[in-house]
Design brief:
Rossmann fold; 2 domains
Length: 318
């Protein structure tokens, strides 16, 4: 019996040590990717490939001073970069849109939505590079949780520029999760009046559990538990804490949820969990037919734009 107990103890200790090492590896793998929106040549080519002519559109406006660069000091004292531009018809601007990019992206990657808001919907636009992404400083990817606080600061900056009383925050993928996580904060400025989530995850835990199973064929325990502890120690937050669902339960402002029907990176089931979690205030849900991850606009640009347009019109009446 003593021998058996010793073997069990050794097995448990070995499993815990293995889990700890694997957790540290996963934390580094997920939050310290080699490319994190810093490959601007590649991102420009990818964006232009999806939306021909869009880089010429942006470069011309940026070169003429319509798009301007800006910086602010974000959480932890890091300098964060963003770009902003007035609506195409400034005297009749409909409000301000803060467009939030996804994991390992930057302000270049969703210029399609920036152009939609500025040119088609006539909104002023603010487009941040999130912590550790693009031209912004930072320690590691924050998966939306601490990013929500930085996006709030960019929203305040945008309001200082244009003084609009209607602002929408629109994010894609990790940016969608950032948007949902922001929506539940108690101290939101009153001019942030609507949110659009495009394919955001229900929580960092749920997303990493899916990635762990999909890429490594491993269950969450003990790797994810260990990785979350490492993240908490290094960056001050844990994977379960960073929850869109928990924040949505506190959100009473209008929100449009968008998700691709064929999304297998952030599985479509996430959007149903998110939608059901928001029990206060107005909400809409659109599942983009046949679309994979973050491809709803690419596949259905006119329908996507009209869903957003109609939603914003409704949100302004509430």
């Amino acid at each position: 019996m003593k021998r058996i107990l010793n073997l069990v103890t050794i097995a448990i200790v070995s499993m815990m040590m293995t889990g700890c090492l694997a957790g540290r590896y996963m934390c580094n793998y997920a939050l310290l990717p080699e490319e994190h929106g810093n490959d601007f040549t590649g991102d420009r080519e990818k964006t232009e490939g999806r939306y021909p002519g869009i880089m010429e559109w942006y470069d011309q406006l940026h070169g003429n001073g319509v798009f301007r660069d800006t910086t602010l000091i974000g959480e932890g004292g890091y300098k964060l970069h963003g770009v902003y531009a007035p609506a195409s018809n400034p005297s009749k601007a409909q409000g301000t849109a803060v467009v939030v990019h996804g994991y390992t992206d930057n302000h270049i990657c969703f210029l399609n939505l920036v152009r939609m808001y500025r040119d088609e919907l006539n909104y002023n636009v603010m487009v941040p590079d999130l912590h550790y992404h693009g031209e912004s400083e930072g320690r590691a990817v924050q998966m939306g949780w601490l990013d929500r606080l930085d996006v709030k600061k960019f929203a305040v900056m945008a309001h200082d520029i244009w003084n609009d009383d209607f602002m929408v925050v629109h994010g894609v993928s990790m940016g969608g999760a950032t948007t949902m996580m922001l929506s539940g904060d108690d101290d939101l400025p009153p001019y942030i009046r609507a949110f659009v989530d495009d394919c955001g995850y229900s929580s960092v835990w749920d997303q990493f559990a899916h990635n762990l199973k999909d890429s490594f064929h491993l269950p969450p325990f003990p790797v994810l538990n260990s990785a979350s502890i490492v993240c908490k120690h290094r960056y001050g937050w844990g994977f379960k804490e960073a929850s869109s669902v928990k924040q949505l339960a506190k959100c009473d402002k209008p929100m449009l949820f968008i998700h691709g029907e064929k999304d297998d990176f952030v599985p479509t089931e996430h959007v149903y969990k998110n939608y059901e979690a928001k029990t206060k205030g107005y909400k809409e849900l659109w599942i983009a037919p046949g679309s994979e991850h973050a491809m709803a606009y690419k596949d259905h640009p006119e329908e996507y734009t009209e869903h957003v347009r109609a939603f914003l019109a409704k949100a302004k009446t509430l």
